Amino acid sequence: MAGTDAHRAIEAVWRIEAARLIAGLAGMVRDVGLAEELAQDALVAALEQWPESGVPRNPGAWLMTVAKRRAVDLLRRRETYRRKLAEVGRELAREPDADPAAAAAEEIAEEIEDDLLRLVFTACHPALAREARVAMALRVLGGLTTGEIARAFLVPEPTVAQRIVRAKRTLAERRIPFEVPRGAELAGRLAAVLEVIYLIFNEGYSATAGDDWMRPALCEDALRLGRVLAGLMPEEPEVHGLVALMEIQQSRAAARVGPDGEPILLLEQNRSRWDRLLIGRGLAALARAEEHGGARGPYTLQAAIAACHARALAPEETDWERIATLYGELAELMPTPVVELNRAVALSMARGPAAGLELVDRIAGEPSLKGYHLLPSVRGDLLARLGRRAEARTEFERAASLTRNERERALLLARAADCG
């Protein structure tokens, strides 16, 4: 097998298998940092051997077997792990001469789901700072390198490396158990996990800074994590709600960017370019979230709002009254100025710009919105629709001064110029 082809194959396998591999190893050694090191050792072994021998029939099992053998070597040197050594040794002694993939595949299939779920909750533990959770999730669950994470969030690579090191140290020093919480603790911990996944998706969907309007790779990583979590926790409606929201939002990706990378706003998008397969998957996930009954959570409500847009084949077919009502429900769960700002947009579409502007002006003084560029952006749009063009221009210029995304700044300045 050609070296270049082998390296491409290894990279693809690593993206798919990294989280499962680290999860299985962390379940053995009870240390996420050590598990990642063992997984990296297995990756090095693949880089050395696969270009000559070819990619194994079950590459994930091959990597797991190699990593487990490295774990055995490590545990052998640690007297305090004698009992664990015996367990792992018995596991590998069942068929010592067999094909590693065949020997490990069945057991990996049985154990991996529990271990992966534990890893998700450990990497997103609320004891970690939000930035550290995101970095850890992308590193151990998304399989991204430190450099890739740094480029995605426009921060220096050493900063990301420090966040990951501190996160691992925190997990070790606090002796945070490698487990899925139970009872009342589960709800709080699950909320942290879902928040991290959605933060990653949002940064890909609308980049906060830089030259690109979107970063599709981050959206894909978040979607993959969400789908995995939904498979591991099929009885949790909010997990399906988050997946539904991301699937439907991602369905618009091709229509959100023009040929030169410029942003295209929702009402101006060519809806024939929306991905109907992703919309179908999102609506199915939303149905799964809602079939559990009871009050809808924030992700399920946002998915229901996204579904209203997805079902409208043309902008004028959008059920804005329903969207405004759903935002009202969301505001009861999440009484934040940002939710109210979105509700104002829906009200303006359902009942006219004056209704929306009234609500915007009521929340304009909120301290949390002081540097939020979408407040003057929305206000500018409403003023323009009311014919108050000079005021609208001022608002668009203010919004442009607040955003850190170059594409968005150009769009806002263009809208300001249109008002001139």
From TrEMBL:
Every DUF6596 domain range: 189-289
Entry keywords, A to Z: DNA-binding, Sigma factor, Transcription, Transcription regulation
Biological processes annotated in GO: DNA-templated transcription initiation; response to stress
InterPro entries: DUF6596, RNA_pol_sigma-70_dom, RNA_pol_sigma70_ECF_CS, RNA_pol_sigma70_r2, RNA_pol_sigma70_r4_t2, RNA_pol_sigma_r2, RNA_pol_sigma_r3/r4-like, WH-like_DNA-bd_sf
SUPFAM superfamilies to which the protein is assigned, alphabetical: Sigma2 domain of RNA polymerase sigma factors, Sigma3 and sigma4 domains of RNA polymerase sigma factors
Pfam family, one: Sigma70_r4_2
Keyword Isomerase on entry: no
Top-rank taxon, per record: Bacteria
Statement: the UniProt record of this protein carries the keyword ATP-binding: no
Gene Ontology MF annotations: DNA binding; sigma factor activity
Domain RNA polymerase sigma-70 region: 24-79
Domain RNA polymerase sigma factor 70 region 4 type intervals: 121-171
Record-stated family: Belongs to the sigma-70 factor family. ECF subfamily.
Protein name: RNA polymerase sigma factor
Lineage: Bacteria, Bacillati, Actinomycetota, Actinomycetes, Streptosporangiales
